Amino acid sequence: xxxxxxxVRALQRQEVGTSLALFRMAVALGSLWLVLSMxxxxxxxxxxxxxxxxxYREGSSGSWLVEALGGASSTVVWGLVAVGILAGLAxxxxxxxxxxxxxxxxxxxxxxxxxxxxxxxxxDLATNALWLLVLADSGATLSLSCRLRTGSWTSDRxxxxxxxxxxxxxxxxxxxxxxAQKISHHWVPGGEASALYYILQQPEWQRGDMRWLAExxxxxxxxxxxxxxxxxxxxxxxxxxLARWRGERASQQGARASRLGRLFQxxxxxxxxxxxxIPMHLGTLLLMDVGxxxxxxxxxxxxxxxxxEVRALVTRVxxxxxxG
Amino acid sequence: MSEAGPQTLSWGAHLRGLLxxxxxxxxxxxxxxAPEGGMNRASWADPTVQAEFQAWADRLGALGLxxxxxxxxxxxxxLAQAWTKGRNVVLKPIRPxxxxxxxxxxxxxxxxxxxxxxxxxxxxxxxxxxxxxxIARDPTLDWRADQLGHDRARSALxxxxxxxxxxxxxxxxxxLAERAxxxxxxxxxxxxxxxxxxxxxxxxxxxxxxHPRTWGQTRxxxxxxxxxxxxxxxxxxxxxxxxxxxxx
Lengths: 324, 248
Hints:
heterodimer, A: mainly alpha, 2 domains, two-stranded antiparallel ribbon, 16 helices, 2 strands, B: alpha+beta, four-stranded antiparallel sheet, 10 helices, 46% helix, 15% strand
């Protein structure tokens, strides 16, 4: 089989939609956070409306859609906010998931680009995820659509696997290229490993006074080096997926998996990856105000696991006897 | 789990393979590291950036590569310019895909700590003199903190403390002056400025040492003309020299 045929056949793989549905719901929550957090205290007026409508910015916005609609007027911006909230809720519930994802995507994209100075990586994390949800059949299960279609909240209807793989690729791209750009001597091993200590001293992002970190400085150094190594080595995750896929193909054909494949099947790097990544994002959420970045990052972790693995985990937890 | 499909692959399957492959190619190319947003030579003069060049000069020197910080800076600038130019050419056909469908990949997150960060201070002049009404992250001086403390506003203010954003900083400071004119009818002037202060090392924290502050991006507004609908920023120095530590 040629490489091209292997690629095309791989994209034909299907699975139950549980992992994608979890990804959908988590992304919807992150996107709602992104829009809803702007509602109180006149933040929308300040940061998104043009000067003529009460904001501080003059001139055109960076969003093609907002410009096409006539500029960042109160009507246009609040209209986009309303679309973002309604589409986010529909996506969370799994109602017309592709359409909801597309509307949420265009809303978040437009709002995020109105004021390019007042945005963050979470905008891009959200829009990338929403685009994948436009491409995916994420409402096949755990959705209102499923309930209306089958009378049940869950379904075994098969969906394409490749959108989930693209979500994993997205996660790896974010970590690996972020790590590759951390070339400061504060980050790169062999130096002071003081990056996290000093980043947490920056008033721009901190939630409160972080001078207490001086008392646990060696710990911050260890976490700095761990973070850098973890980000740089994240492409190994793709090797895990490749090795597991090749292993499954080999067993279907009655052949033995490669040595590397057996190694990755035996030691599941995904668990270690998640065991570092999720606490790291929770720590970021606790110590820094970087909006919904951590929540949206964690949303992608749902894509790391095959629906069968998710179901096995749910079954295992459900069967565990209650304490006492 | 199943690998569906007949032995012969349909045109639809090939088309899907092509489109998914193009998506992968596009996002990987866009994600390639780039100094986007950092190509401002004035920003490179910042003490944080200069300390970085010095640290790398020391590190390379220890490895036997005798390059001074100025030489490293010049080579990095030349390389970054060439890379940015080449990258723009390669990414030109991909830009519509990122712009219209949100597939941009700007993962330049905390590439280096800002060791000389800035903190916004806002002060009012009333009959009794100057009074500070806002300091970023100070819970007791919190005028409009619900707006200025939101992560999106923090992101904008982080940028406005750097050179190269003076137009936007002027727009935001004017907006704040207009709000101050409404919120404090007795006040005569509003001053906005960033206090820059080197972050203390762990040893300095333990010793109780604090680096001195310097002030930058100062803008002062007379609030009377704003209330009368005639707005104009006061020229630098009109209220006398601004000294480090003033206003607290």
